[in-house]
Write a structure and sequence with these properties.
Chain lengths: ~400, ~400
């Protein structure tokens, strides 16, 4: 008997019919002789509807109250899914994040899971129940409801799989696996059967929109076998694990991420600890920084440029404004009409010239590069958003994936 | 500095504008130098919408999952009200039922409050916060979310006022007080300035639709001073307390309640313990019985007739069906086209002939009485629902209230 954690996103439970569809997949898994824990997001537009309700009243509501509000979304979806499973005749119980033992830090709106006390989930499994758990939410040490921020439900699922020692964690989504590029942009993109955590991590953080990087990081850390599958079609998905068997491909995929804003701090006084001051201040406000470039400026100053998600742009500018007393700089500029286009692949470490080939593809297509960032297994470029789809296509073609 | 518990029902917070209106009343109360705890119901149609969502999926969902679903309704309203208060600039925190320490028994859908652990609410008050609490909900000893059933939010408010030792509990509703009859039926009905718990209890349980009897019972038990007020208009309401100063009125009000179903068990074997068997079985399923009549039948048998709310009719018939093994009876009949019309008033105990006068009014109007039940301060009659409004008017006129 295997213990399987299945995660269904908001679009998979968006209406009664889809909830019924998920219910029957869950019950099938159970009837195949498995113990099943299901992590669910809020239904389709629920979260957006709740945010709109909040904005009608207060566009600057505290994150603490926003979390209270949003947590209701998953409470609704877990109850409805449990009811659909009851209807089929299987034993089931739904649990909120706190009932399922999710303990987080006290950062409302973007909490991290500190630990999961699995007693309740385990005891419900022992009672032969299918256990439905609200994703995206937990409880801090002051007994306040918190939410996990973007990709929260994936993270909930993987963390729960790790805590329970589950045999695998299946992430159901509206695509049927991980592709070498977005099939809507690249018609000749291919589905990958397997991919390593590291590759997936780069793809996820680069906007492949299938799995959030937090969940992949956690899967890697606790060696949770992940499967990305389609909620709608019963076809094999993509397996994410430590080592893959597929033949070495130079690059594994091309991605683009339009949710990016670039901030540049120009003419910073060149003293030690500058970068620390900037980025620790941003971290204090829960702002995740992605690409960072530091360059020597003019007259003994330096420039620091970095990217954040668009949502964090305003807050980032405020934080920098407040740093004016402790930091000397000329000006702060920002742009949010950019896209990050990247190539990912474990193969590239041993193949010099990969980055050059990518830049050549962009040059051939007359696409200007604003910023470059590289890691062991990826190369990212920041370009104008208007060129993003074309960039993905020309790079995908250039590497002949 | 007084500690005031204010309760706002679903219609009082039905949309953004009303939520803002409630927020400013709450902040005014605080700024007048009081500590304020606010108990809120789910917004307007939220509960109905959630029930509809459930019915699309499973019309026979477990009450446990129904409670999980419905509890989301108040989570939304407490968060929104807290945001509206934040907007005004006051310190505020919202708490779910379980966060506010509501511990209930394990009867989903109709739970009773066992106790309230007020530490959290008290500590938030000590931090100068306005505390917004989700009505209608609590947590059972197995850590399952429960709801309190009909009138639950009123009960939450009164119980919390009692547990906190509040100076008073204000119930805001869409009427501006307690009337001698429903003003929509009797245009010459009068608003009462004061009323005793016992009178209110009879009025509440008889369908006056202002306060639920559970909340009034609890107010009487813990001597909580209640005030029924309008959410929309700033006019004095009705005060509910132990002894009132107003001159003795023969009867205090006329009410009708259309949510009534009558069940009759005909030809019961006349052995001791029959009534116990019937009503303990119903109690086990959480079915509240209202009027009870036991009469001698034919051939050494007896008949028991009683009323329940319409919602409980089907369940009641099932329970009686299951009693067939332990109970001998000829048949069970039922009707749900009835209305309970009643007069209430502490004055009637010392005034013989009050009941007769009521029956005369009904006789004059050619209204047939199906069942009669009396207590120290009320007389109830069961009549055809089609006659209910007329009955209220003729009785109100007859007593010249």
């Amino acid at each position: 008997m295997a213990l399987i954690v299945q995660k269904f996103g908001g679009s998979s439970v968006a209406n009664a019919e889809r909830v019924r569809n998920v219910a029957s997949r869950v019950v099938e898994t159970m009837q195949a002789g498995n113990q099943v824990v299901v992590v669910v997001s809020a239904q389709g537009d629920t979260t957006d509807d709740l945010i709109e309700k909040a904005n009608e009243i207060n566009t600057n509501a505290s994150k603490r109250e926003m979390d209270m509000l949003l947590a209701a979304g998953e409470e609704i979806s877990i109850a409805l899914l449990a009811m659909a499973i009851e209807k089929i005749g299987a034993s089931v119980i739904s649990l909120t994040g706190w009932q399922a033992g999710f303990k987080t830090n006290a950062v409302p709106g973007n909490a991290r899971i500190d630990r999961i006390d699995t007693e309740r989930v385990q005891s419900e499994l022992d009672k032969k129940n299918i256990v439905i758990v609200a994703g995206f939410q937990g409880l801090d040490k002051y007994d306040n409801i918190t939410t996990l921020g973007r990709g929260g439900s994936d993270t909930s699922a993987v963390a729960l799989a790790a805590a329970l020692g589950a045999d695998r964690c299946e992430i159901y989504t509206d695509v049927d696996g991980v592709y070498t590029a977005d099939p809507r942009i690249c018609p000749n993109a291919k589905k990958l059967d397997e991919i390593t955590y590291d590759e997936m991590l780069e793809l996820a953080s680069l906007g492949a929109n299938v799995l959030h990087n937090r969940s992949v990081e956690m899967a890697k850390k606790y060696n949770v076998r992940l499967e990305v599958k389609s909620s709608f079609e019963k076809v094999p998905g993509t397996i994410v694990k430590e080592v893959t068997n597929v033949e070495k491909m130079l690059i594994r995929g091309v991605t683009r991420d339009n949710d990016v804003a670039r901030i540049a701090i120009i003419g910073l006084e060149d003293t030690p600890g500058i970068a620390f001051k900037v980025f620790s201040a941003l971290a204090k406000y829960g702002i995740n920084v992605d690409m960072i470039l530091q360059s020597v400026g003019r007259n003994g100053t330096k420039d620091i440029a970095f990217t954040v998600t668009k949502e964090c742009l305003q807050k980032t500018l405020e934080v920098l404004e407040n740093l004016k007393d402790t930091l000397t700089y000329e000006e702060v500029t920002h742009r949010d009409d950019l896209s990050k286009v990247s190539i990912v692949g474990a193969g590239m470490t041993n193949n010099p010239g990969v980055a050059a080939k990518m830049f050549e593809a962009l040059f051939d297509a007359d696409i200007n590069i604003h910023m470059i960032s590289t890691s062991e297994i990826k190369v990212s470029t920041l370009i104008n958003v208007a060129n993003a789809e074309k960039a993905v296509r020309v790079i995908h073609d250039k590497f002949n994936i």
